Structure formats: structure tokens, C-alpha cells
Amino acid sequence: MTTFLGIDFAPFKVPLHRRLETLAALKFVFSFVIMHTMATLLVLYVVFYTSYYWLALIYLCWLCYDWHTPSRGGRRAKWYRTWVLWRYFRDYFPAKLIKTHELDPQYNYVIAYHPHGIMGMGAFIHFGTEATGVSKLFPGITPYLMIMKILLNLPIVHDYYMLPGCCDVSRDSIEYILENSERGNACVILVGGAKESLESKPGTCLVLLKNRMGFCRMALKHGAHLVPVYSFGESDLYTQVDNPEGSKVRCVQNFMQKLMGFAIPFFHGRGIFNYNFGLLPHRHPINTVVGAPIPVKKIAEPTRDDLRNLHQIYCEKLKALFEEHKVNYEGYKDKELIYI
After folding, report:
1. What is the DSSP letter of 272?
2. Which CATH number, 3.40.1130, 4.10.780, 2.40.160, 3.40.190, labels domain 2-33+66-339?
3. What is the model's pTM?
4. What are the transmembrane regions (predicted)?
5. pLDDT (tens digit per residue) in 29-67
């Protein structure tokens, strides 16, 4: 490493696998941060400024025809989930999926993932790819990574985001998966959502959960067992601009969330050739622990008390999972899981 003008530059000579790991991380960040805008602008450009407008119009007709597929189980591609590039992405951190109990494929599941982090990278690696062996660890279980509906409504990314098995996180979409006659389906929900990303800072263990009961409602309504998951290291991948409640930064972020429907954190990680700033995540281990499933009895119309009881049980199980495993990971031994 070379330091110049206060900037720590990466060494020029590094092993090839390190370059490929960086490439994989760069590819994910591009898809998450830039691809939506570029894809939309590309389609508009082809329609209005080229003689190939008819191709774009044909595609837009296809998009309209295929509009509800993300709410009907999506359209996953095995080749994409097993792509060798994702193994390099896994090794970039590295990321590891830890199994504590079996998941019986005779049941459906709601897997609640915490924390969201800035981009939910751990959730994608573990449940959107086979890089950490989710199908081998939990045979017979088909994970569906639930993401914001707006992302699946945009041209090009509509089809691209379904490749790893993503579906929209709407009620209709979740119910379609959990009502399927085939068992062994698992809806992976980042419960804190994009709003929780505003709390994602290195060294923090904040989980937006106090008033989040929608996932409990879905579990009760369909008798899907509830699985707590905590990802140690997810919040350590990026440094976020200080944004306490009431600050000007947070007011701007809250306004943007109300306007667009999702939060926008102001953050930085590292660059391709430096360690101080950029959009790449820091190389910090992500250790994701999958807890024991909580049996849930089907209640077609759960009452408020039913929701509160299951939510309380879930909160206790998640905290117990955190306390049991935090001693295994550096920087967490003295931490406490805080619900907000």
C-alpha cells in the first residue's frame, strides 16, 4: 500500500483472484446503483433518437405483457445463480452462510433478514446466488429474494433482477409464493427495508423492527414458519454520512423517501485503486447466521393480539440468536442488539 496526499492507494501488483473479486463487487454495485437509470435512458434514447425505435417498442410491449411475473414467482435462471463470478464476489469479503438448524421442505418459510445494510449484499450473495451453498445447506428449499416493486417495473432490469430469483415484496407476491401447492418455498424479506439503511453504520447493531409486523402477518396467514437471520458484518461495509434524527441530512433523506418511496443513504466505501473513498464495499467479513424456524400455526384472519404475540416471540428469538453467536465474530462481543 502506498500513501500519497493522505490517500491510501492499493498496490499495483496483486494476485489475479483479487482483481476478479474486485470486478465482481464492481459489477454488483453497478447493477444496484447505476443500472436502473442507464437502462431506462437507453430505452428512451433508442425510441426517440435512433432508427431502431421499433425494437424498443417491441420490448416495451413485452414488458407490459410480462408485468405481473415478478408477483407470480418470478423467472429465475440457474446459470445466473451458479455463475462463477459470484464465487469471487463471496471471496471479496469473504461471506459465509451459517446453518444452525434444518429447514424441513414440507413447510413454507418467511426468512427475515437483518440488518438491511446499505445494499443488502449479504442477502443477495446467500439467497440470490449459490455462492455460499444455500441449496446444499437447505436441500429442498427454494429461496425467493423479495425486493422493492419499483425496481422490477423498470425496463431491462425487470428481466435482469428476476434472474437470481428476485420477486417484488408486495403482499400479492408473497401470498402467491406461500400459497403455492409445492412446499419448501422461502420468502427472504429484508424486514428493515430501505429505511433501515439510513441507520447502517460500522459498529452499529440497530434493527428496524418495533413497528414492522407485516412479515408476521404473512407467516400467520399462510402458516409459514418464521426464520430469524442475522448477518454479522452487513453494517460494516460502508461509511455513512452522519445523519441523526432531526439533522438537515436526515430531513432531506426523509423527504426523498416520501417523494420516491425509498430512502437514499449518503455513503462511501473504497475505490478500485484506493482504500479511502469510492462505491465499492470495504473488504469486511459477512457472517450470516440462519436461526431455528419458529413454528407458526395458520390463522386465516390473524388478530392484533396474534400479531403482537408472534412479533414478541420473534424479537426474543432474534435477540437470542444474536447473543449466542456474537462472541464468534470480532467487534461484536460487547455489542447489544437494539430494536428501533
Report:
1. S
2. 3.40.1130
3. 0.94
4. 23-45
5. 999 989 999 999 999 999 999 999 999 999 999 999 999
